[in-house]
Amino acid sequence: MSSYLPLGLPGHIFVKWGKCYCTAIGTHIASQIMGNKEQHGESVSRIHRLRGQRYTVQKLDTVARQVAYQRLRYETFIKRLGWDIPATEEREYDHYDLEDTTTIHVFGVFGKKYRTEHLLGGVRVFALNSWDASMTMSEFKDAGMIPATVARELARRDHSDLIEITRLCVKRGSRLPPPATPPNAETEGFDLAIARDLTYAAVYKVAEETGRYLALGLAHTSYLQLMKRGNFSFEILHAQDLHDKRAGYALALINLPATVRAIRASGGRDRANRMLALCQDKRAFEAIHHIS
Hints:
By secondary structure, the chain is of the alpha+beta class. The protein has helices spanning 27-34, 44-48, 63-80, 136-142, 148-156, 192-210, 221-229, 256-265, 269-275, 282-287; strands at residues 7-8, 53-59, 87-88, 91-92, 104-113, 116-126, 162-170, 175-176, 190-191, 214-220, 234-240, 249-255. The chain has one domain: Aminopeptidase (3-Layer(aba) Sandwich), CATH 3.40.630.30. The protein has ten helices and twelve strands. It has a seven-stranded mixed sheet with strand order 2-5-6-7-10-12-11, sandwiched between helices. It has a two-stranded antiparallel ribbon with strand order 3-4. Strands 8-9 form a two-stranded antiparallel ribbon. It is globular and about 55 Å long. It catalyses: a fatty acyl-[ACP] + S-adenosyl-L-methionine = an N-acyl-L-homoserine lactone + S-methyl-5'-thioadenosine + holo-[ACP] + H(+). This is acyl-homoserine-lactone synthase.
């Protein structure tokens, strides 16, 4: 897929193994990836280890990684999509970057080759403790992007049954050239479709840990089309100017278990496995049908 992959919108946010050669921040995530080796025949690590490349999902708990994520957001949302939002030194930021709370989870997907690490994608996930903590119900609504009728319908829902996806972005293109390699070494770039799937693996991880199986997000027109082609299972709660590829958007509610079932049913076994890679009980997650 030769485009940036943002989920969210202007001034706010857009609404994704054999022996494992993964180095993750926190042994918890690393052990979860290692645990996939019995359940998933082919794996990201196994497919790419002969090329000297590996992919990891990590919490962005260092300044360097947070800066890399903000730069990717700047590249995606400001340079690519033309949003008029705060930025400094080619870094896009908002007040959520400064909040110290257990309800905001920020992850990055990294490609590593020959000890050099590259950020391929990132996502911020809110496990809402109230509708006041939602970007949709605060920034987006205040900016006039969410009609009052839609906001009232959302407010009637129990916020505790969903997560909110924000600032989801993946590097543009189908492959990212790797860093300089030794002579005669394999030089094929990182597969950004895998990076996208592992970005969603972070979303699914938060969903499983919190018991929330619906994901709310504001999606740009182009990304909405990508979701449709990618067999996502979702409901559009509000749409605005979808004919406009630059300014159009939709508020979508994604059914996460139904999405991986649909992807698997369409022949995307490896893709579905990657999206579930960080879940403790993958079969149980995928089997969930009744979501209130």
